[in-house]
Amino acid sequence: MLNINSRALSATRQLYGELRGAPLYLITLENSAVRVELINLGATITAVYAPDKAGIQKNIVAGFARPEDYLHNPAYFGSTVGRYANRIAEGRITVNGTPYQLPVNNDGNHLHGGFEGFHAKVWEVTQCSDTSGEASVTMEYVSADGEEGYPGNLAVQVQYVLDDTNQLSIRYTATTDKATPVSLTNHSYFNLSGFEQPLVTDHLLTINAQAYTEKSSKNVPTGNILPVAGSSLDFTTPTKIGQNIDSFPADMGYDHNFVLQASGKTPAAVLEDPQSGRVLRVFTDLPGIQMYSSNYWDGSITGQQGKPYVKHGAVALEAQAFPDSPNHAHFPDTILQPGNVYQQIIIFAFDVQ
What we know:
Number of helices: 0
Structural class: mainly beta
CATH topology: Beta-galactosidase, Chain A, domain 5
Distance between the termini: 7 Å
Strand content: over 45%
Oligomer: single chain
Helix content: under 10%
Largest sheet: 9 strands, antiparallel
């Protein structure tokens, strides 16, 4: 485990601009080993500095060099995505018998909340503080009835908490005044070498899933849940990401939803970089995790690390509900009802070995 000295955790925020009259903040959560940088545009993680086995800190997530570049973030670097993460087929949903048409922004489907989803919104920073055991920031956003086609006024809160064991917890809460689908996630991309290695194909990945949701040629679930055993999606033991990455030419890599086992204290996923020794463990109470291997990165973006982001240069491990769940009655329910509270958690635990 990483060594932590007695230095207290800290949480700070700094004003860097405004957008549509709302303040924009740089936020830093830090302990003696790990530093997490965020902005309230999209409630976005912009950097995670974590040490390797020699104690050298590198930023292990993809992000832009300047905070103003997040005004246009088509790859969703580090952002909070919603109202519904992943795809909804043809943007069509029916809630309590009423049909709704959501905007289609990805090959005929609705993706990550639409053209102006939560990743593009300025969130209000309502709390930024530190104690002896954790540093945290809370951000809130109210999505109006009809925004991006969704029903109901949805009040959303995301809290990022860095503790003294190098765990970054992301806690989501939401309430609504009208039944509406909700699935929130964080869209960070990880390269545990700090992008010193341009590809993550030699990273080892383990996913605690015996099955995945089959998808159609239009990249949405067919409704079938299939076993990973015997397929190129079997990550039940540590497997190099690049080992079978060419098995999906239509996707140009991995872009698949895994059906997580009830985990308890078992990580949903473990990512390891044998060269640097950095390890990421992902814990969640969400039912699925989307693995995406940055298939469309083309080197046109030079990131915060000063390195071009190339195809398969990082991997996103997006804990979330199943894609297109509102259109599959046997998938876990994602309709939030008035009077109920949406509460989910994702934990990124950073370590070395």
